[in-house]
Write a structure and sequence with these properties.
Number of strands of chain A: 8
Largest interface: A-B, 41 and 40 residues
Oligomer: heterodimer
Shape of chain A: globular
CATH topology of chain A: Cytochrome-c3 Hydrogenase, chain B
Strand content of chain B: 5-15%
Number of domains of chain B: 1
Helix content of chain A: 40-55%
Structural class of chain B: alpha/beta
Helix content of chain B: 25-40%
Distance between the termini of chain A: 42 Å
Distance between the termini of chain B: 37 Å
Number of domains of chain A: 1
Structural class of chain A: alpha+beta
């Protein structure tokens, strides 16, 4: 038997924008076990509900993570709206859908870039991020912010998008779609890229189910589940199919995410076509009393928001279960038996968001 | 503007929400693209001149930040990016946030914003380059003084 050794990975590592620490137990070059330790970004923001009232807390919820900022804010708002029995206007629902899908576009493009960076394809990284900047420009034009938007409030949205702006966005999306086809060819058909992704980090359907994975990581292992089908925001009016793949390796995860990019563009087109005119917010009176679980499909998978109010302006409890937290056991499973050189890519294929996980 | 040397950056995510981190990365990618001036985001503290740190300090990352800072060779400049790195920001009242980066290491430049915009981050880096030259000149002067005394 070969000698066992332990290689520390992180918390500061060139491939990770965020700190996470893994102790990799190796037998020669092969990883036998990976022991994670997290908590480097723990802030304790769930306890802030005791100091900020339920309206102010929207801003804290948006800062759970700067990548899915919009969806965190929306998830929290929808949970409180359910507790208070507020029905938001249809236009606000469509606005939320459009911004959600724009978030997914920017998040997946960012991930594609980071993946390319992890296997050393620098120009592909730059191309992905160049395209992502166009989405950020759309965000800046519509909300005023590039990564943190603060357009959600309890009872609706704070900003509206007029017809000209939406038409302009569709034009930009057409360009992005064209460029995306070129980009996806390199990710999916390039021999060098395929050699780093195909057959690496295999997770079976049974494992994906047993370990409780979510999002594209789960769908790449063949499980057909997407929280958007529950029909929050305006998703019940929109026609889309869940994208899955049966391969279960890193290539499948890339493929699922690339297909989701095209799907997001399609959803935005449908939403722009169907968006009704009218109010974007309703006035909210009183304080939340009761509890609710809200489930939202983020770019990384399903996030759960639990809100409990007691009839005062301060909530009793807010709990967030984020997708990366659910995906960590699956990631550790894919690391077992892998080569040390593949570890950075395997960590990236779950699209880790440590800020969400540790809050 | 007199850039005597293209500075290399070290980026560490303290306890930020990722917003400032992706903006730091966006600085090095097309549209902003500081890499064309030779400003490179390196992963190795021993190669870095400027330490960009985002997010506040908590009890677990305090030692990591100190260690990264001590591994950087002199002269070095620390830039606190975003309001959380400046003084804790929106998370100031959280139980696990000790405060801004200046609680553990000396900070030279503060870049405000939530999230800090790439323009202001680049502005911070440009200011850091000037400071780097100044610190280098001071180091040289001190070295020659101590040399004479020998």
């Amino acid at each position: 038997m070969s000698k066992r050794s332990i290689v520390p990975f992180g918390p500061h590592h060139p491939v990770l924008p965020e700190p996470i620490h893994l102790d990799l137990v190796l037998e020669d070059e092969k990883v036998v076990e990976a022991v994670p330790s997290i908590g480097f970004i723990h802030r304790g923001l769930e306890k802030l509900v005791e100091k900020k009232d339920f309206n102010e807390y929207v801003y804290v919820a948006e800062r759970i993570c700067g990548i899915c900022s919009f969806m965190h804010g929306m998830g929290y708002c929808e949970a409180v709206e359910h507790v208070m029995g507020v029905e938001i206007p249809p236009r606000a629902k469509y606005l939320r859908t459009i911004w959600c899908e724009m978030s997914r576009l920017h998040s997946h493009l960012m991930w594609l870039g980071l993946l390319a960076d992890a296997f050393g394809f620098e120009s592909l990284f730059m191309q992905s991020w160049r395209m992502r900047e166009k989405i950020l420009d759309m965000f800046e034009a519509s909300t005023g912010g590039r990564v943190i938007f603060s357009v959600n409030k309890i009872g609706g949205e704070m900003k509206d998008m007029d017809g000209d702006m939406l038409k302009g966005f569709l034009k930009i999306l057409n360009e992005i779609e064209k460029e995306l086809r070129e980009l996806s060819k390199t990710f999916l058909d390039n021999k060098a890229v395929n050699s780093r992704l195909q057959g690496v980090g295999f997770l079976t359907k049974q494992q994906a189910h047993d370990l409780g994975t979510v999002g594209p990581f789960m769908r790449a292992s063949g499980i057909d589940r997407d929280t958007r089908n529950m029909g929050y925001a305006a998703y019940s009016d929109i026609d889309f199919e869940t994208i899955t793949s049966n391969a279960g390796d890193s290539y499948a995860r890339t493929e699922v995410r690339i297909k989701e990019l095209f799907q997001s563009i399609d959803i935005i087109r449908q939403a722009v076509e169907k968006i009704p005119s009218g109010e974007i917010a309703v006035p909210v009176k009183g304080f939340p009393d009761g509890e609710y679980f809200m489930r939202v499909e983020q770019p990384r998978g399903e996030a759960v928001y639990y809100v409990k109010g007691n009839g005062t302006k301060f909530l009793d409890r807010v709990r967030v279960r984020t997708p990366t937290f659910a995906n960590l056991p699956g990631m550790l499973e894919t690391l077992k038996g892998s080569q040390l050189a593949d570890v950075p890519i395997l960590i990236l294929t779950i699209d880790p968001c440590i800020s969400c996980t540790e809050r | 503007m007199n850039i005597s040397k293209s500075p290399w950056l070290l980026h560490y995510d303290g306890s930020s929400c990722n917003g400032c981190d992706i903006e730091v990365l966006a600085c090095t990618t097309p549209v902003y693209d500081v890499e064309r001036f030779g400003v490179i985001n390196t992963g190795n503290p021993k190669h870095a001149d400027i330490f960009l740190i985002t997010g506040g300090i908590n009890s677990q990352n305090r030692e990591v930040v100190k260690q990264l800072y001590s591994q950087m060779p002199d002269p070095k400049v620390v830039v606190a990016v975003g309001i959380c790195a400046c003084d804790g920001g929106i998370f100031k009242d959280c139980y696990n946030i000790l405060g801004g980066v200046d609680k553990v290491i000396p900070v030279d430049i503060y870049v405000p914003g939530c999230a800090a915009k790439p323009e202001s981050i680049i502005d911070g880096v440009v200011k850091a380059v000037g400071l780097l030259d100044k610190k280098r000149a001071e180091m040289k002067a001190n070295a020659s003084v101590s040399h004479k005394e020998d």
